[in-house]
Specification:
disordered N terminus
Amino acid sequence: MVGKKTMPLALWALTISAFAVGTTEFVIVGLLPTIAADLGVSLPSAGLLVSLYALGVTIGAPILTALTGKLPRKTLLLSLLMLFAAGNLMAAFAPSYLALVAARFITGLAHGVFFAIASTIATKLVSKEKESSAIALVFLGLTVALVTGVPLGTWIGQNFGWHATFYGVVLLALIGLGASAVLVPANLESDAPPTLRQQAQALTSPRLLLVYLITAVGYGGNFIAFTYLAPMLTDITRLSEGAVTLVILLYGVSVAVGNILGGKLSDKIGPVPALTVVFAGLTGSLVLLGFGLTSPWAAVAVTLFWGGFAFGNVPPLQSYVVQIAREVSPEATDVASGMNIGAFNLGIVFGAWGGGHVVEQMGLQAAPFVGAAIVAGGIVLVRWSGSLEAKAISKRSTLDVAQETFVTDVSDLQNRVPFQAIEERSVLAAIRAPCLMGVLPFPEILQLGRLLVAGSERSIRGRHRSGARSRFSASDQFLLQRVTGQAIGEWRRRREARSTGWQHSRH
């Protein structure tokens, strides 16, 4: 971990970079009519520049994160920012629609990797109790870009041409690159690259998949309404275009504040309770928006209230994924983080697509209500995930006690002299609980269990024949002692490795 004086600057460097990357994604929204007219394509075709970028993020986040696991974190960070600059430069010089689509898709592939890596770097710069706040600071750049990138990019594109907008994005990427090169420490602890099995655990773990689903549902429900915020304010609320621009700008300020508060809330009460609060607030604000659209004052007030919850779920969700990944597959936390970034963008893709169908079939005013219903479903998923976490914590506590008891009891049996005097039922009593609970899933324990069963059968037969207590045979006694020692040694090795892993994760 770096020193306290360096941490704030390093985190702000990541925030600047996140602003540049976020602007890359959202700046295209305000340019769609201009690009469609200039390149001679329809508006829906131009809209693919948004969808395919998000699709690139969804695909690239988990795959490229896994493939780049061997690179030092800072080296990978700077390489990604260079790729962003190059991708946007390609877009600025794109001679055709297809060339622009290709440039956007390539840039999107690296987008998800950036936020996955930036999230894990942020957690390494702070203590464990401040991880969510650190992630919130990084994603603050994204939320600010969401609001400022669209109007600023639109203004530049309308006055100087859409090519000039991409030149501006290139400049932002270079600023983020320079800040990260100077301020992000190079001596960050780097974990060993994950194996394919470890990556598979991060990609297929039921608990992680549930969090990915929560992310997609939460973002998808929100974007059903957010995608059509401007048309709702102009067509239903009857605000002028200038007023709508001002409302969206104020909405962005609210989003930035809510993002920071979401991180602080997660640090204070934990990711699951924080997500419950944020999702409940988001559901309520979307319902209020649906009812308040007919009144200008109510619509503006509810929109600002909604912004406070709209992206407040980002820090606790990202922190929650990292937390679970450290338990499921500690070596593949970057992969898990990348998958969650992909889930964010998958939610955006389906939210915008689903919102279009809602507006077409049910009208603009229905969008907030449908979005609220989907986000409410996210609350159910959050509580389900919380119950699974509680069971996992309870199981870990029970297993730790059983393992300690096993080592104490069996070590005591090993130290007894003579070993031949040990009755098989004493050994059975020492390992019964941990064996039944599966806390020692080592090959040696399987062999030990077979020996104990065989010894017990001979003991029963011996008692029936002679009425006396029988012992293990000499060969079984020797094997039992050796195998038991191997099991204890293996358990101690794994316990030390796990302890070391947790210590590293805290730093």
